[in-house]
Amino acid sequence: MTQTFSYTRVYQFVHSIFIIMGCSKEHADVAAKVLVSADVRGVDSHGVARLSGYIRLWESGRINATSNFEIVHQTPSTAVIDGDAGLGLVVAPFAMQVAIDKAQQVGTGWVSVKNSNHFGIAGYHAMMALEHDMIGIAMTNASALVAPTFSKERMLGTNPIAVAIPAGSQPPFVADFATTTAANGKLEILQRKNEDAPTGWVQDKDGQPSTNANELKNGGALLPLGGDRDHGSHKGYALGSIVDIFSAVLSGASYGPWAPPFPAYVPMPENMPGEGLGHFFGAMRIDAFRPADEFKRHMDQWITRFKEAKPIDENQKVMVPGDPEREMEAIRMKEGIPVVKAVVNDLQKLGEKFGIQL
Amino acid sequence: MTQTFSYTRVYQFVHSIFIIMGCSKEHADVAAKVLVSADVRGVDSHGVARLSGYIRLWESGRINATSNFEIVHQTPSTAVIDGDAGLGLVVAPFAMQVAIDKAQQVGTGWVSVKNSNHFGIAGYHAMMALEHDMIGIAMTNASALVAPTFSKERMLGTNPIAVAIPAGSQPPFVADFATTTAANGKLEILQRKNEDAPTGWVQDKDGQPSTNANELKNGGALLPLGGDRDHGSHKGYALGSIVDIFSAVLSGASYGPWAPPFPAYVPMPENMPGEGLGHFFGAMRIDAFRPADEFKRHMDQWITRFKEAKPIDENQKVMVPGDPEREMEAIRMKEGIPVVKAVVNDLQKLGEKFGIQL
């Protein structure tokens, strides 16, 4: 039920769509690279599957393809950026670069962004720091789908956190995860297969445990990492809240249940307390703490030791965050990106509409 | 099975013990305040229950009561501190103050610490930022008790993260949590009551699920937040790893399975790659991002809105991180601190040994 396309073919198609939206060549280059990096790394829910969603946001006037984002406030180690309702796919790399530039100057850089939109995978932005021998951090708030512990109301997005840490001869440590038990994309996979979800992923509209993968359509909610109080859901709720506050309250974006929805057909919340979605980025220069080569030698030892940790099952070795995505990237850059039929149809329709061949 | 003591009485006792250890008055003031803040906030496992553990570490020469900690490297926004094997209870507030001072200068401050010891509750240190209108962050690595996803080996500590965020008329947001499903202290409570643990807290020595609260004594391990792969344990494992790397690899402390053990009778690991335990602290000045009064007004709205989120059960309202500990603090400062009998006996023995009345 999938059709496989080369990276180049997918990239070109996405790039052409962004050009038609009115993006500059420079912006389309970045946006296409960020979006397709999700498909390449195996995070299929955040790649081309979302392209028509971005288009609908643009058509409804919620995304400004010719945005002029700018720094509205700064100190030597911080900045706030107004995304001018631009594509998060473009605003985010710009903001991460500001964090990197500040880290070059004073050791670390921290940037909060308002008035933006969905930014693709957090990991892409965090990883921008690696080539500069820096630790990179990226997070974003998102449309409310998650109920806090003890609540039946959707108050937070899946609010992901990504942290990328350079190593020496080993590949980097790259964590990139939603602060929920399972990301919404995992639920969508179960929906397509018509399978149940494990307990602890969702609850129904009354806040009762459920294994129905379609529960969100019935007014249910995703659960914070931990699942329930006994299993630490108050910690997942705290993490999602921290992401919301750093990304949106610190910048002046719209937070909590007021975060703008991704589906363009969902009306914007009333009385929004800020502008658009918010993101938060950090860059820390390794040698602002200790010599980079020394640090990387120890990261190599850290990574090697964890990979050698005694496995429960000899056939399933311990992994280091970033391993699965990097392995997927190596395969897909060589063998192409498998796209599920529903998404292929969706992209073909887009192509017809805009006169572009997939 | 508890005996209740006033805050002052517990503080005085602890203070006298630290003076006898050889701490300066200034250090004893801080150490006693930090240690007893755990009891006051209801984190009983991290307060006076640990006092004799600190003493044994001092007696075995692993804690230096007359440490001269110092900044060994710095940039405008970062520092690395060598704790000189001092009490973490004293090293940590010193390091957090350095982070705060740097934030005053350049917007944010980030401090990694090596050659330290257990620092009490992370929340105390993070909360130091609040009175300066800053966001405070504190984390630490710890003795390995936690198995990564797919492993049966103890590789990480319970590695807590604390984040304190100021508000206006509302009390501050204070998250402080172990990156495991449940902190070790919760397991100890079940052990005392001779009760089983919920699934997802621990596994046995072969890596199989267990509900035996004594599993750690049999070679088992605590589980990362999430519990198992299906419920996101790889995210808890990633979080614990990030804490380990920021605290120890960045500073030059000993990391992962080499972190020094808290019980003095446990031999130090061989071939330790760094010095002592590591901590990591951050301070971000609110007005390095937006005017502090504006931010606090929005935090008030954030907190109020989350407290009003629709509850599943009308008798259990939604809480904001920090609420339970603050309520406990109000009660215990007024009514005293209940200390379980076993800990009272332990403290009395200490008192006899050092000629101090509890």
Structural summary, described in words:
- The structure is a homodimer of 358-residue chains.
- Chain A is 38% helix and 17% strand.
- Chain A folds into two domains: 1-66 and 325-358, Malate/L-lactate/L-sulpholactate dehydrogenase, four-helix barrel (Hypothetical Oxidoreductase Yiak, Chain: A, domain 1), CATH 1.10.1530.10; 67-181 and 223-321, Ribosomal Protein S8, Chain: A, domain 1.
- In chain A, strand 8 and strand 9 form a beta hairpin.
- The relative contact order of chain A is 0.17.
- The first copy, chain A, has a seven-stranded mixed beta sheet with strand order 2-3-4-11-5-6-7. Chain A has a three-stranded antiparallel beta sheet with strand order 9-8-10, with no helix packed on it.
- With 358 residues, chain A is α+β, with helices and mostly antiparallel strands.
- The interface between A and B is large, with 86 and 85 residues.
Q: What strand line-up does the widest sheet of chain A have? A: 2-3-4-11-5-6-7
What oligomeric assembly is this protein in? homodimer
Report the principal-axis shape of chain A: globular
Structural class determined from secondary elements of chain A:
alpha+beta
Q: What is the element string of chain A, with H for helices and E for strands? A: EHHHEEHEHEEEHEEEHEHHEH
Q: Average pLDDT value of chain A? A: 97
What is the CATH superfamily of the largest domain in chain A?
A: Malate/L-lactate/L-sulpholactate dehydrogenase, NADPH binding domain
Which blocks of ≥5 consecutive residues of chain A have pLDDT under 50? Answer: none
Tell me the β content of chain A: 15-25%
Question: What separation lies between the terminal Cα atoms of chain A?
Answer: 17 Å
CATH fold-level name of the largest domain in chain A: Ribosomal Protein S8, Chain: A, domain 1
Over the alpha carbons, how many angstroms does the gyration radius of chain A reach? 20 Å
Q: Total strand count of chain A, please? A: 12
CATH architecture of the largest domain in chain A: 2-Layer Sandwich
The number of domains of chain A: 2
Name the helicity range of chain A: 25-40%
